[in-house]
Amino acid sequence: MKTIFENSIKGRKGVISGEVNNDLIKKIDEKFLRKEELSLPEVSELDVIRHYINLSKLNFSVDTEFYPLGSCTMKYNPKVCEKLASREEFLNLHPFLSYIDEDSVQGVLEIIYEISRLLCEITGMKKITTQPYAGAHGELTGVLLMAAYHKAKGNNKKYIIIPDSAHGTNPASAAMGGYSIISIPVDKDGNMDVNILKEKINEEVAGIMMTVPSTLGLFEKNIKEIIELAHKYDALMYYDGANLNAILGKLKPGEIGFDIIHINLHKTFSTPHGGGGPGSGVVGVSGKIMDFLPVPEVIKENEKFKLNFNIKNSIGSVASFYGNFQVLLKAFIYIILLGKKGLIKVSEVAVLNANYILAKIKSYYDVPYNRICMHEFVLSARKQLKNGVHAIDIAKYLIDNKIHPPTVYFPLVVEEAIMIEPTETESKQTLDEFIDIMIKIAEISEKEPEKIKQAPLKTPILRVDEAKAARELKLKCDI
Ligand SMILES: Cc1ncc(COP(=O)(O)O)c(C=O)c1O
Question: pTM for this one?
Fold first, then answer.
């Protein structure tokens, strides 16, 4: 009996040969025509199902295991957000429709308008552009806005100041925007060194880009002093808000003087970050930057939503249409679902979970900045290194214990860095299991370091030469 799969293959052949017979066959030289039937793989439906189910089982995901990948906020996202965002009414919509017939897409425009309004409320900024497709794209947009602001004022600015605890994309974005970077080291407590900042800042500084909480998982203690200093030189304050998961409902960057912020909807608001999938790095601005925002923006006029292309000194569009609508939609549903209280709880539990783990394991590892952390924290494997165990070995051992490795060797300012972000969606039981494994790793590193260095031993592919794997990428494997 033929399976559905076989029939569908035959069906395809029929369609293809039918078209060729009728229209094109006479034009093709005889010598190029196929003499016998094309030999397509003939496999049963069951074989296909088994193949793909087994492949999917090799996947590591938040749905199956704990995923404390620092800096990525790999939390569990409610399935209802996916489900609602996948409704046909949204999926089948052509973005051009909003350009030619605003009346037929009022609902969609309203969602974009409302998510912008909600994000302004959350961040304390005056206006939001939903265009940027990722955090780094938001940063570049922010830097272009900075440049437009200074140009309009006739300022001659050449530099952007960035602490070395900022995310690595910050200096890259500043450089792409045409600025040179002045890097400021952190002090002994992990804050930007304000004394060095005071020496370096000058009239030619266009802005200061700060990641808050920083990549060390710490809240910047001197933030107010830094903002005052920047504004004295008409330098703009940029808030890298990709780590918003730590401060929801606790701090509104716009209210303490930040001029530009980007946030990663694909970390905090119901779209995962680590999968390399679609993202949204929306950018919020204070009143003095509003006139430079990208076009179009969604506005409300006489109870109707429309696209406005008329922003006085707009830097132009930085993406097609209004960005990744599906990601905006999921964020909108998530915010409505959780409400104000729920969002505040997200941050409180995210910070609590990180501090719980830190308190339990800090005597076993080196902690470079021994402070209360925010939603994530950074350890160093320096202690374990005395027995030859590196951060990468610990990461590999965790895989054997069905835990996704934390981020390792980032941030660069910490030797043998291990960056752990548990997120708010994990239970105390999961955190305790992780704590036990981390303590066990520290103990084994003392007595039998080779055991850790050999890991992973339970994965389909064992230890790979990572540099070679990156340089000689082989996308097929014979598992
Ligand atoms: C603090 C910070 N800034 C910027 C980014 C860059 O975001 P994206 O990867 O979406 O470009 C990230 C990514 O995780 C981040 O953690």
Answer: 0.89
Burial 440-479 (b: 16+ CB within 10 A, else e): ebbebbeeebeebbebbeeeeeeeeeeeeeeeeeeeeeee
What's the average model confidence in pLDDT over 239-247? 98
Give how many domains the chain has, as a whole number: 3
Q: Please, is 384 exposed, middle or buried when counting C-beta atoms within 10 Å of its C-beta (0-12, 13-18, 19+)?
A: buried
Q: Is 389 helix (H, G, I), strand (E, B) or coil?
A: coil
**Mean of pLDDT over the chain:** 92
Q: How many CA atoms lie within 13 A of 417 on its CB side?
A: 23
Determine if ligand 1 sits within 6 Å of the CB of residue 264: yes
pLDDT over 90 at 403, yes or no: yes
Per the model's pLDDT, the better-predicted residue between 26 and 373 turns out to be 373
Residue ID of nearest Cα to ligand 1 atom 6: 135
Q: What are phi and psi of 219, to 5 degrees?
A: -85, 135
Beta-strand ranges (E) seen in 215-354 are 236-240, 260-262, 283-285, 297-301, 304-308
Look at ligand 1, atom 4, and give the residue with the nearest C-alpha.
135
**What CATH number is given to the structural domain containing 402?**
3.90.1150.10
Burial class (CB in 10 A: 0-12, 13-18, 19+), 182: buried
CATH of the domain at 273: 3.40.640.10
Ligand 1 atom closest to Cα of 136?
11
Indicate which atom in ligand 1 lies nearest the CA of residue 267: 14
Other C-beta atoms lying within 10 Å of the C-beta of residue 427: 10
